Amino acid sequence: MNNKQLPRVDMPCQPAVERRGNFEEVALGYTRDMALTEASRCLQCKKPLCVTGCPVEVPIRDFIGHVARNDIESAYRTIKTTNSLPAVCGRVCPQEHQCEGKCILGKKGQPVAIGRLERFVADTHIASSACEQVTGANACARPLKQRKIACIGSGPSSLTCAGVCAAAGLKVDVFEALHEPGGVLIYGIPSFRLPKNVVSTEIDGLRGAGVTFHLSSVGGRTVDVAELLQDYDAVYIGVGAGLPIFLGIPGENLVGVFSANEYLTRINLGRAYDFPKHDTPAYRGRHVTVFGAGNVAMDAARTALRMGAESVHVVYRRTRAEMPARREEVVHAEEEGVQFSLLCAPVRFLGDAEQKLCAVTLQRMELGEADASGRRRPIAVPGSEHDMPTDLAIVALGTRSNPLLLKATPNLRLNARGYIEVDATSGETSIPNVFAGGDIVTGAATVILAMGAGRRAGQEIVRRFAD
Question: What is the pTM of this model?
């Protein structure tokens, strides 16, 4: 049997009936034999198209070649030449639309499981020095005295920029508004998809390379771009876009209606799933309704099940074909018992005498012509309104830029949508030596796209101050 005929190696997972009752990781990871078998499927193309689909341009062919030869250390170092957070990316990146989407084997069959192999390499590797997690080499970069970089925010974009700069010997200080570093990796993505110890290990690697984290430091309040520029050679803004978008329908202020941001932050960052061991309470619902169909909506729905909900419905105004969530997340949600109410849109929330949510009025939809997003526009069906009982509603319709830092930085040029304008090549803003990337530039996007922006800006900072 040749490479083309080998079947893709399935990812072992917790059984659905077990995992819906815990917050342990769902996907269990490849064994070494599984990884070697999957790596042997790679055709080692002379012109690897998979790399063109990767925002941080991981040398995919090369690292998979090392895996196929059972040289995991070389595979790890190869990945780390461009990717600061491989254990994270191997778990949460939408590989099916990026690197795997370009794999030649996917044209007539199943692509190589690039993300699963990346995760295997990262999880298997045990760094012989803390610095190796950042530099990919068995030594720390020599510090360049008096060259300092400040990163505002500690999500994937800032962490990547910090890693690139630290590997080149620049002194990096990261300022994080919350009490724990990691940004959306900590507060947004549940541990059953991205275990917190995986994130903390990556962050510890940065600490070992000399990166200092300053917590409870709010951009635009306790730290200011203009003041930072007095002490630092460059500033990187990676604060994300954490201001939630709501539905704008009657009853949205009822008790029991939450944004996905607040709900997931309480559960994840506040460890509300482990109450009372951790003292952050969670609002628990018996019949939960989630609005939206992206990855955040799937996270919220699957979290609600694990928090004891009797039923969880995802309400989406289009069909399954238009869902922006990763297919794997949708399949996992269905396996766990999440129900989907498609071609439906909310009209109003209904409350009881105590102003607590008790139901939502939905209206059936049908799809018309394509809109600006390229998807068919939903059109309301007259006379189709109906009520669905619910005592917890979670709105997962995306986010927009938080104005706190932006208003405190008047010379920062913004686009019409309120996001920071940057040079596409360097990531530099309208303020010299101030860079930005991630969701605060693009709007809500993927972890790997944010990392790509952090890498580009970090490379430009290194070019200016480390060469």
Answer: 0.91
